[in-house]
Design a protein that fits this description.
The structure is a single chain. The chain is of the alpha+beta class. It contains four helices and twelve strands, in the order αβαβββββββαβββαβ. The strands form three sheets. Strands 2-3-5-6-11-9-8-7 form an eight-stranded antiparallel sheet. Helix 2 packs across helix 4. The radius of gyration is 17 Å and the shape is globular.
Length: 161
């Protein structure tokens, strides 16, 4: 086998593997809540089949390729601004996202939304391939297990008048 063919085989072998989910350091109560949440997530999400994740005990799940990735124990977004990031409630869960990416005319970029109303925090990374159509279905499908497993710390607030 030529060196080029060997590189191609190695490259192709790496494709389609499990989706990596970053581990987070949580106390035992939060880790248990996240495990309950992940166990309650559906096998199918917005028409996408559940995918393998790594590590096997990750506090998250993935669907499709490219993957929609849900992570429990996520960090608050670095550029979160409570004034400009509106809370959209779906299924009793308040979701926040970068307003510049939520605008109707800006659907060709990947987006991450956070459930900042519950603890531990949950993030959902949605590839642009699935926007805008699958976003409402994704949030609705994740909302029920999230609300059932994680603590509500602060509901969405009405915007200031």
């Amino acid at each position: 086998m030529s060196a080029c063919a060997a590189v191609l085989v190695i490259t192709l072998a790496g494709c389609g593997g499990p989706t990596e989910i970053d581990s987070v350091d949580l106390d035992e109560a939060d880790a248990a809540a996240c495990r309950d949440f992940v166990d309650g997530l559906p096998e199918s999400l917005a028409g996408l089949d559940r995918a393998d994740v790594a590590p096997d005990d990750a506090l998250g799940a993935a669907w499709g390729d490219p993957a929609v990735v849900v992570t429990c124990g996520a960090a608050e977004p670095k550029d979160f601004d409570e004034v400009t990031w509106a809370c959209q409630e779906v299924g009793g869960v308040g979701w926040f996202g970068d307003p510049s990416l939520i605008e109707a005319g800006n659907q060709d970029e990947d987006i991450t939304v956070w459930a900042l109303t519950h603890s531990p925090l949950v993030s959902i990374a949605i590839p642009s391939d699935y926007r805008p159509d699958s976003v409402p279905a994704t949030l609705a499908a994740v909302a029920t297990p999230l609300a059932d497993s994680l603590e509500l710390v602060e509901p969405c607030l009405d915007p200031p008048e």
